[in-house]
């Protein structure tokens, strides 16, 4: 069950700003030396929606299957169920299924996880139930464990939002002796331009459990983030570094941890992303895009060398699509006056591919 972890895995995933990831390579290091690797292979259906994720591990000088995730969708593209199958050779076959249920207004209502371990048959495991605020954001997520023939309260997340739909905090409760008890709280703070600045986690005693701080380039790209332990300084804290391609897509993400005996950071995990080939096709067709002014206040001009219909999309840094238009010709003036200040991804696409640019709106 993944939903309650979405915000802590950062703003990245198998779908990054309108461009489908084809391969995600994960390298693990120990004492600055590569130790082993795993990778994820992504496949998509004709509607460009994720249909299969293959998880593999590097063993004995070759890639070996570990598990498959199969995405089954309704006719309108919504996820109906997610099936996980153990593909390890020579071991028992595990099977999990997440079943998605929606309300009459198409909001996610609940997710039920069933499992089959060691071929003992499908057994109910957990259920997540969702409640929403008037803006349509999930304001409450309740996790229940299946025990003795019925669901029992296990954990609850309460979420509050700013008027511009940015998160303010999470409160996480556990169920004990018939009552909800606060376990920990995550508090989100933002820079004046709307970019995420910090996530502070407090336990029930109001002591700092951990803290994430986010740092950006002058162009608005996420540069790095620190994971600070209680009472720790930047020098002895873990760090994430983000590296971007010329198309505005995430190339690599590196997680480094402090060395034990020597000062400085040591690479621990590196993620390397490869995308579907339409970016390469765009480059072959001289797919160039100029966006100015940037930073912008109320509009941007977009110049490209393409003729014919082009689609313009605007995404928040969380990957939410906030605007989509279809235009003709190589020059456009795009009004941004109705959007909150902050960082955005602007994507221009045509039959030749797509190009992405960061925009800072202030």
Short description:
The chain is mostly beta strands. It contains 1 helix and 26 strands.
Mean pLDDT: 81
Total domain units? 2
Helix-strand topology string: EEEEEEEEEEEEEEEEEEEHEEEEEEE
**How many strands appear in the DSSP assignment?**
26
Oligomer: single chain
Major beta sheet summary = 18 strands, antiparallel, barrel
Low-confidence stretches: 1-17, 278-286
Proportion of strand residues: over 45%
Using the alpha-carbon principal axes, give the shape: globular
Number of helices: 1
> Which radius of gyration do the C-alpha atoms yield?
22 Å
User: Percentage of helical residues?
Assistant: under 10%
Structural class: mainly beta
CATH architecture label name of the largest domain: Beta Barrel
End-to-end gap: 37 Å
Highest CATH level, the class of the largest domain: Mainly Beta
